[in-house]
Amino acid sequence: MITAGEMAVVDANSEALGVPRKQLMESSGNAVARAARGMTSPGDAVALVCGRGNNGGDALVAARFLRDREVTVHLLGRPETIATDIARENWDALAGTELDARVVRDSAEFALGDPDLVVDAMLGTGVTGALREPEATAAAAVNDCDATVLSVDVPSGVDSDTGEAAGGAVTADAVVTFHDEKPGLAALDADVTVADIGIPEAAETFVGPGDLLRLSRASDSHKGDHGEVLVVGGGPYTGAPALAAQAALRAGADLVRVAAPESVAREIQGYSEDLIVRGFEGDRLAPKHVEDLLARAEGQDVVVFGPGLGSAGETLDAVADFLGAYEGTAVVDADALQVVPEVETDATLVCTPHQGELRKMGGETADDPAERAALVESFAAEVGHTLLVKGAQDVISDGERTRRNRTGNPGMTVGGTGDVLAGATGALACVLDPPEAAAVAAWANGTAGDRVAERQGNGLTATDLVAELPGALRRG
Ligand SMILES: NC(=O)C1=CN([C@@H]2O[C@H](COP(=O)(O)OP(=O)(O)OC[C@H]3O[C@@H](n4cnc5c(N)ncnc54)[C@H](O)[C@@H]3O)[C@@H](O)[C@H]2O)[C@@H](O)CC1
Ligand SMILES: [K+]
After folding, report:
1. What does pTM read for this prediction?
2. What's the CA gap between 216 and 204, in Å, rounded?
3. What is this model's ipTM?
4. Which domains does the chain have, with CATH numbers?
5. 112 CA to middle of ligand 2, Å?
6. Which family would the database say this protein is a member of (predicted)?
7. Structure confidence at residue 221 (pLDDT)
8. Sign of torsion, CA 17 22 25 26?
């Protein structure tokens, strides 16, 4: 099953892998023609009713593959108003054929005739609201006629995610949908076929630039703030929490606060005046600090727990106490990770171990990336949290869905890059679901590293990565 939003991500990742939308449209159109041919005989009349988006584009392609049928193409609206270049190019391509292609300038001009088969390609996943004209009149004519109706991707007017039909939606006898089943089609009283349109497997297996689309959707739908993050870290190390906090800012969080032992808080503040640093008594985290930290975590979108805390016994006890009582979302990194498998928590956690830390948590690892991904998936299911396991290929899993990330380079084994990733994951988890946040953060962190390496060769530092994060998170 794939939702329209996921399909858009996969589509953009496919393009980045060298298989652009226009090529997918050619495959979709070909699949539609194959289905139409299976439902008719040579010489039968096939009416292709095309909207001005890519759904219509699919049928404009199909027309070129149906020359042994008596084809009529009805374009709903003027060609100049076709919404996408690739659909327009496929309309223009019909000029080089003998096909009967008609422009329906307004609904009064629409004459369906008496076809044997109607191909309904008015609206696909781009539909919004009840059908407008001329689609409404055309849909009514399609629903009234005696012909069999084959819908492209989804019956026009039906929401492919929910199955809800807008006013005036088409009733289909059959549907050819693309790449994977759609949740909204399952309940329809129509014969649904899934056509493989040649999307490379890697477009789904690996996180790609298409995954950045999730961020634009999040900013459309979110309450308008990009989140507040609390970083709890520091003790034996001061750089780690500072890097995580700066990465969270660069990855889009509005406000980043740091809670660190007093002895290091001032030093952390020295790294950046953009951070709000407040110390707690002593040189390291201990159970006596937990109540105060829980109060500080109240009202934060995400807590990033662990960078630089160290592994003193009382520190790990404090981590366990905190996680036991916390109910929000937290990114857990570094020494704090080993506590996770033992602790009962209502919190939503994203754990970011490297291979060694994963083993310390009780997880297994393997050399082969696909095998490792399967092991990470079952361990994520066992611990009940999202895992982002760092490596030459990162693996991200919530126990159900698993992705891999292959951005990044050997130069990134330098100290501090993990802290940057934890901070970026924290910022993104303010606006995205945990596995999506982890996947986008891993991709962006690696992409930032690749850009720095391309520019300056060796000698990458974690600070370089932080500076490059905004660019890596920008689409296009
Ligand atoms: N990877 C993908 O996502 C692929 C998508 N493909 C096709 O592309 C389709 C999506 O294309 P688009 O995003 O261009 O969207 P659509 O073609 O579904 O619809 C967009 C057009 O419909 C108009 N419209 C929206 N709501 C309307 C309403 N209520 N009444 C009248 N007009 C309305 C819009 O103004 C726009 O011109 C899919 O359904 C599928 O058929 C395929 O080509 C293959 C690959
Ligand atoms: K359709």
Report:
1. 0.94
2. 19
3. 0.98
4. 4-202 (3.40.50.10260), 206-473 (3.40.1190.20)
5. 16
6. In the N-terminal section; belongs to the NnrE/AIBP family.
7. 64
8. negative
